[in-house]
Amino acid sequence: MDKVNRRRALFSAALGYLALAAPGAGFGAPASNPYGLLDPTTISVGSMGDAKPYAFTDANGQFSGFDVELFRDVARRLGFDKDHVTFTGQDFSALLPSVANGRFDVAVAAIGTTDARKKTVDFSDGYLAGYLTVLAAGDAIKSADDLAGKRLGVVQGTLQEAYAKAHFVKADIVNFPDNNSAISALNSGSIDAHFLDYEAAKQYAERFKGLGLAINIPSFDAPAGFVVKKGNDALREALNKALHEAMQDGTWKTLYVKWFPGSPMPEQYLPKK
């Protein structure tokens, strides 16, 4: 082999090595790590497995729901295909600490943005707002006053827990790790009502015919956002850009209609004409 061909062979081999060594090269993920991820090739997401229709595991054990589908679309716009976005289920109360401590890159589970939470983590721009609902059996509970002396379930760490402690002061607040365990307690009579998100409450009322939506409370001051580690501005800003693209091109609207049929649609998330 002459010198020219030998140099070409060595150069080709070097290029091949670099292509193999580059994180995520050729596998549907960025080759560098511009967003400060735990693994440059994958976005790791903490979520919930029982918060239907926002985030839940289906019959095949796969994560699904409005928030899950929306985040996958946002991640795709950042260069990460479905195989490079991994979801892991946790109790709600563990989600924010897990992002803050570096276990996950992002938390996605209709997590309301509040000043208290922003002390430990950062949030993307809001993408969802709605109502809080008291779910109960029968018609004994029709207003907040009717909760006096009642055992009211809440999922620990949620907006509902904070709201209940501030406004339902005469109720006996009972913490649960997730909605499923609270609904089980409600159906067994261990608690008198459960306080959760409106859309999730609607799903449970359809599933368990003895349950009904007793009280609906507007909650538009703490819109849901994607949670990222405090100070990771590169990831937060990238998520915001992709999120607004999804709103502007109608993807957000399509997913909202799919997962919340018949529910009021917040105009601030619809395409701007």
Structure description:
The protein is α/β, with parallel strands linked by helices and 273 residues long. It is built from eight helices and 13 strands. The chain has helices spanning 3-21, 66-77, 92-100, 159-167, 179-188, 198-207, 233-248, 251-259; strands at 43-47, 50-51, 55-57, 63-64, 85-89, 106-107, 121-123, 128-137, 151-155, 172-176, 193-197, 211-224, 227-229. It has a five-stranded mixed β-sheet, with helices on one face. Strands 10-9-11-8-12 form a five-stranded mixed β-sheet, sandwiched between helices. The protein has a three-stranded antiparallel β-sheet with strand order 2-3-4, covered by helices on one side. α2 (66-77) crosses α7 and α2 runs antiparallel to α8. The longest helix is centred in the N-terminal third of the chain and has 19 residues, at 3-21. Mean pLDDT is 89; it is low at 7-27.
Query: How many angstroms does the end-to-end distance come to?
Result: 65 Å
Oligomer: single chain
Largest sheet: 5 strands, mixed
Task: Indicate the proportion of strand residues.
Answer: 15-25%
State Rg: 22 Å
Q: What is the mean pLDDT? A: 89
- Individual helix count: 8
Major sheet: order of its strands?
5-1-6-13-7
Q: Tally of extended strands?
A: 13
Low-confidence stretches: 7-27
Elements, N to C (H/E): HEEEEHEHEEEEHEHEHEEHH
Q: What is the share of helical residues?
A: 25-40%
The shape, in one word, is globular
What class, by secondary structure content?
alpha/beta
